[in-house]
Request: fold
Amino acid sequence: MPATCVVGLQWGDEAKGKIVDILTEKHDIVVRYQGGANAGHTVVTGDETYKLSLIPSGIFRPDVQCVVAGGVVINPAALLEEIDALKARGIKVGDNLMLSDRAHVILPWHFEEDRLIDKQCTSGEAIGTTLRGIGPCYRDKVGRSFAIRVGDMYRYDFRDRITQIVEAKNSILLGLGGNDVELDPVDIFEQYHGFAERLKPHVADTTAYLLDAVESGKKVLFEGAQGALLDIDHGTFPFVTSSNSSGVGVSAGSGVPGRYISKVIGIVKAYTTRVGGGPFPTEQDNEIGQEIRDRGNEYGTVTKRPRRCGWFDAVAARYTARLSGVDALAVMLLDVPA
Reply:
């Protein structure tokens, strides 16, 4: 059994990137299998600190193959910005990065939908969206009619597809109160055609690649994003993310059957944090919580938002450990509450 999975067992931000970076040297392939640019991983290499959102943490080892699988939703501009930033700092990003042709693409209408829907949710507790178009993109993925995958950007009818969807989306956005929004299909096509050309060397059938890899005995490391308590089906719904962020999402997001995964490592912090609304039984909304926040530098890697902080919740961790089939635990940031 050649595959290992690293998954967060809380509401994300458990320092998974550090563990993945340590384990990478013992693996041939590192896979990101769900989520989007709303996730953030911080990796410290020597005196350098890197913040990643879409690219797997294994990118710092040039002999390791990094795979962004079909379960991830892609903002091409964000991915290219991340690639350019890494290259500018001397990190190799070439044929060691593969992007699934089945990954769904975040487009301008997704950002507008996110903004307009969030604007209307003025009553009750906010679900904590990062306004990066993640939820609307996953919604179109499930709805299918308006979905565009990475591979679709190379089809002969891509321009017509954009025009067709923009016509429908302009009506939808108007109904959501977007009176000032008028998407231009020509501009969108030109922009995303440019993205597609730059990303083309990385695009591949990652499902077939990963199945060949595990069947041939290569060592694969699956890198989860967010945390199991944010799982769309098994988390603290509706205050969750839009994908299966627990261990049960690995197979769906990557296409690799569970029988190939020999070890699941659950990551927890010695305390608990979460971003956005939702239940938090051990939260310390007081000076203790602020001290934890300051000592742990609990501000979003991507959003910079201050995280809600509280004590370690063993009941919640037991639930997510069972849900994700955890074999081992890594407890991070023990020095913060000490």
